[in-house]
């Protein structure tokens, strides 16, 4: 029997209807070169052969099993903290596999770094049959990557139990993004490290949580909101600017075009007001008739700024208009400005908030809404086409290519002092595809009306 004071690592496996994968997960722990571990297996009221699989391993003295009543991953994680005897905890999902050296290597780093709170390795992606099809590498923390916005995989982080207790364990109200939750509370306060060795096999299949993007997005936003709450109290003012113009879009007075029963400007104004995060919302336009829309709202936060027509031509520098607004408001370039474009009327209020929260918690100069591009991109050279984003088996978090959605962006007002709208430190947040739809033609306007009716 393993002695309580001899156990260094507690591995825990949560399982719900993953009986067909569970044996491989358990045996990858049994094969570890490091010996001072215990394994806690939680069957979260599975309806498949999970109990039958678990029964084969109950005789191992280093394994303890638990039956829970469909309590979910985060409650299981907190139960694992409570039941654990080890100094360090690491989760292994029932459909994933450990490299036989993962515990040996990660514990060795902890032994050499007494102030280390969290460590994680690179990993392989495997398919349902267990075949490797890609390797995911992470750039070195605090050398090249200093962003809280890039959390590690929650299923292969080894964390010091004392630290987990200090931060209050796992939140149980999210339903997803447990790794990001813990990461967001540990990374700013404690020492963390990543090992650039693939020590973990992450299985991709139809039942992965990664195939539930809405749950992931909602959980991620809730985490960012809570991390940003205290920092927001020290930032003022937070202004929203909605640029409008009379000409130079595909049609005259684009702001007047109707989707459903509202104009584009009304729709955008409503979403910005509903966010309830702005001290002032300014419609900047060279067309005085836009003031008629503002009058409908009768809201003291909404104001009009007369924009110079010369600054509305195609490819004009928006920072000129923003500078003029700053001077008129006499805010001395403090605070932040959120720029919301008319052409993307389906941007959600929660996405607007995420722009602010992402910026505040990462303390960057600008945040922009983007879509990740998974397809191959090329640029033309004198020798033909050259790939921009190499699609390869081994990828890092710096290999992703993004497209700015032109839905919105958030900047520090001090960027405008040097005439650089975005500043030098830009961070992204992912905008759901449906919210990226742009009205850039009469056809788009027709499609937008169909979309609006379905949403309504």
Give the topology.
Layout: E1 9-15, H1 19-30, E2 37-43, H2 50-55, E3 63-67, H3 73-83, E4 88-91, E5 97-98, H4 102-112, E6 116-126, E7 132-137, E8 158-160, H5 161-166, H6 178-186, E9 191-203, H7 213-232, E10 238-243, E11 258-259, E12 262-263, H8 264-275, E13 280-285, H9 291-297, E14 302-306, H10 318-329, E15 336-340, H11 349-362, E16 366-373, E17 378-381, E18 384-387, E19 394-396, E20 401-412, E21 426-430, H12 442-455
Parallel strand pairs: 1-2, 1-4, 2-3, 6-9, 7-19, 10-13, 10-15, 13-14, 16-21
Antiparallel strand pairs: 4-8, 5-9, 6-7, 6-8, 11-12, 15-20, 16-20, 17-18
Overview of this structure, please?
This protein has 456 residues and is of the alpha/beta class. It has 2 domains: 4-211, Spore Coat Polysaccharide Biosynthesis Protein SpsA, Chain A (Alpha-Beta Complex); 230-455, Alpha-Beta Complex (Spore Coat Polysaccharide Biosynthesis Protein SpsA, Chain A). The chain is built from 12 helices and 21 strands. The chain has helices at residues 19-30, 50-55, 73-83, 102-112, 161-166, 178-186, 213-232, 264-275, 291-297, 318-329, 349-362, 442-455; strands at 9-15, 37-43, 63-67, 88-91, 97-98, 116-126, 132-137, 158-160, 191-203, 238-243, 258-259, 262-263, 280-285, 302-306, 336-340, 366-373, 378-381, 384-387, 394-396, 401-412, 426-430. The strands form 4 sheets. Strands 1, 2, 3, 4, 5, 6, 7, 8, 9 and 19 form a 10-stranded mixed β-sheet that branches. A hairpin with a 5-residue loop joins strand 6 (116-126) and strand 7. Helix 7 packs across helix 11 (349-362) and helix 8 crosses helix 11. The N and C termini lie far apart (62 Å).
